């Protein structure tokens, strides 16, 4: 029996593959950054093909580093940047456009229109979310409305939507050749399209946003006893390995910090900064502006819910200083520079982008 598990961590700025042994110790890690694409002010994109290629490369590199092969892994799980939206051709696997990243604000007009018709909290009772450009549903609508030929292809059933874990699971399990088109409950809860109580797509919201239902993935538990598919022998793992776990990155941090009891919380600092509080097996509305979301669901068990507070820019500020201002050439340099200053002169940089 295999003693190792592979975790593909696809984040906003980079992709990592980590191999763990049966005791949870890290055996190997490989990481690669991908481009941040800014076509216009407020617009943020990623190249889905680059992300898939980087995923392949880090899998190969991590296995090579520790001298293992794909057949040594018992299973593969994925954690991913949430809300980032990919729409692609189910027959060729080619994206119709770059992925629209969770930070992107191009869908604000769509959100404003939805708010005018029913208010900011129009869907909150069902989805746990306010209407916001942050979530995937308006991003899907934007692609359908603005990218040539997508809506026509979608009405014919030729188009698939997914957040990043869906995109990677589909490719890992075969892509156009029978790849599994699934999303776990945590990622589905970030689309503004899923009913929190039933864990199913909300038909009324889908109709309001004019999204063809066949392009949506099947919603599955975060940790599933039945694999959604297996990797292919001609893929980066070179073996048939079950793919049966997925969590949005912040929910994965909640699980990783073992916050399994109601009232336990985690706060993590990456591209953004996110606080999640486990609230148990019933959705809990917030009286203070937090969002209600899925924390995780184990196969055959009731889902666990959470309250979340989000700050969009944290570590991304360091990357912005590096790539846009050119003040540093690598992220660690910012701490070196900061330590050289004895007094900030009363000046603070607040990352409220």
Topology summary:
Layout: E1 4-10, E2 14-21, E3 26-33, E4 45-46, H1 48-66, E5 73-80, E6 85-89, E7 99-100, H2 108-118, H3 124-127, H4 136-146, H5 150-155, E8 159-163, H6 164-172, E9 182-184, H7 185-188, E10 194-195, E11 200-201, H8 203-208, E12 218-220, E13 229-230, E14 242-248, H9 249-256, E15 265-269, E16 273-280, E17 291-296, E18 304-311, H10 315-325, H11 333-339
Parallel strand pairs: 1-5, 5-14, 9-12
Antiparallel strand pairs: 1-2, 2-3, 4-7, 6-8, 10-11, 13-14, 15-16, 16-18, 17-18
List keywords for this structure.
18 strands, six-stranded mixed β-sheet, alpha+beta, 11 helices, 353 residues, 27% helix
Structural summary, described in words:
- The protein has eleven helices and 18 strands.
- It has 353 residues and is α+β, with helices and mostly antiparallel strands.
- A hairpin with a 3-residue loop joins β15 (265-269) and β16.
- Helices cover 27% and strands 26% of the residues.
């Amino acid at each position: 029996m295999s003693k190792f598990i592979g975790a593909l961590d696809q984040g906003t700025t980079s992709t990592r593959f980590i191999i763990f042994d049966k005791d949870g110790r890290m055996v190997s890690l490989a990481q690669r950054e991908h481009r941040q694409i800014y076509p216009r002010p407020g617009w943020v994109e990623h190249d889905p093909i680059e992300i898939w290629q980087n995923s392949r490369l880090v899998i190969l590199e991590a296995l090579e580093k520790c001298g293992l092969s794909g057949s040594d892994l018992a299973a593969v799980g994925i954690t991913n940047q949430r809300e980032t939206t990919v729409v692609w051709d189910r027959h060729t696997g080619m994206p119709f456009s770059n992925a629209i990243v969770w930070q992107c604000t191009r869908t604000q007009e769509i959100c404003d229109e939805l708010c005018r018709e029913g208010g900011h909290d129009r869907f909150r009772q069902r989805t746990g979310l306010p209407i916001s450009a942050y979530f995937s549903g308006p991003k899907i609508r934007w692609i359908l409305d603005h990218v040539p030929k997508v809506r026509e292809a979608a009405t014919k059933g030729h188009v698939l939507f997914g957040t990043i874990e869906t995109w990677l699971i589909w490719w890992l399990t075969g892509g156009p050749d029978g790849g599994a088109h699934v999303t776990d409950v945590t990622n589905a809860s970030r689309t503004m399209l899923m009913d929190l109580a039933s864990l199913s797509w909300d038909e009324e919201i889908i109709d309001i946003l004019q999204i063809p239902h066949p392009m949506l993935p099947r919603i599955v538990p975060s940790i599933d006893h039945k694999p959604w598919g297996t990797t292919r022998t001609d893929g980066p793992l070179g073996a048939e390995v079950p793919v049966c776990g997925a969590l949005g990155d912040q929910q994965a941090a909640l699980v990783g910090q073992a916050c399994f009891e109601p009232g336990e919380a985690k706060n993590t600092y990456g591209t953004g900064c996110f606080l999640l509080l486990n609230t148990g097996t019933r959705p809990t509305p917030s009286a203070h502006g937090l969002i209600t979301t899925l924390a995780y669901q184990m196969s055959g068990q009731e889902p666990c819910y959470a309250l979340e507070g989000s700050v969009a820019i944290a570590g991304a500020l360091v990357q912005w200083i590096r790539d846009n201002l050119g003040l540093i050439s690598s992220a660690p340099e910012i701490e070196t520079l900061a330590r050289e200053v004895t007094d900030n002169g009363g000046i603070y940089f607040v990352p409220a982008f």
